[in-house]
Amino acid sequence: MSHTFLMQAGRWTLQGSWLDRDTMPVTVKGRILIAWSRDNWYTMVTRLNFPGIDRDEITLQYRGRLTSGDRQYTFVLQHSLLGRVEGEGWVAPESIVQRYWVLDDRQRRTGFETLHRLGENSYCLSSSIMSGHYLASTMEATVERQGDH
């Protein structure tokens, strides 16, 4: 079984918990849309919201390139909280791992996420944002493919 997340166009939902430093976990829900162009460029748009609390939605707009057979890729990201971001990803047999860093950032913020495949249409996501050497926030969620597969 090969990866379906990121490797194929599609719509996904996300549901889990978000934790900020020194706060209680809150519910996070989201939608992810992935599209591919003919020349092996992908776009991924993610919207995260926090039902039941007064907190702004987080949006992430990725653009990256992965050629067939490659296990490593790079991307750029416009993040509604972090601004302009660059990153890299690795496609492992059971997971997709991404690391990114915020451009021109005095706080030296970086991020890391792992999507571990649970099945053909579901993944477990674990992600964190760091500021310098400290964790600033973390998210754990399940990600599930929607619609026709």
Structural account:
- The structure is a single chain.
- The chain is mainly β.
- It has a single domain, classed as Lipocalin (Beta Barrel).
- Helices cover 0% and strands 66% of the residues.
- It is built from no helices and 10 strands.
- Strands 1-2-3-4-5-6-7-8-9-10 form a 10-stranded antiparallel beta barrel.
- A hairpin with a 6-residue loop joins strand 4 and strand 5.
- The protein starts with 9 loop residues before the first strand and ends with a strand.
- 20% of the residues are buried.
Keywords:
Lipocalin; 0% helix; globular; ten-stranded antiparallel barrel; 149 residues; mainly beta
How would you summarize what this structure contains?
With 149 residues, the chain is an all-beta fold.
Question: How many helix segments?
Answer: 0
Fraction of residues in β-strands: over 45%
Q: In CATH, what is the homologous superfamily?
A: Calycin beta-barrel core domain
Average the pLDDT over all residues and give the rounded result: 94
Cα gyration radius (Å) = 15 Å
Order of secondary-structure elements: EEEEEEEEEE
**Strands, count:** 10
The CATH architecture: Beta Barrel
Cα end-to-end separation: 14 Å
Indicate the low-confidence ranges by residue numbers.
none
User: How many strands, what sense, and barrel or not for the largest sheet?
Assistant: 10 strands, antiparallel, barrel
Task: Give me the CATH fold name.
Answer: Lipocalin
Instruction: Give the helix/strand class.
Output: mainly beta
- Overall geometry comes to globular
CATH class designation: Mainly Beta
The largest sheet has its strands arranged as 1-2-3-4-5-6-7-8-9-10
Q: How many domains make up the coordinates?
A: 1
Name the helicity range: under 10%
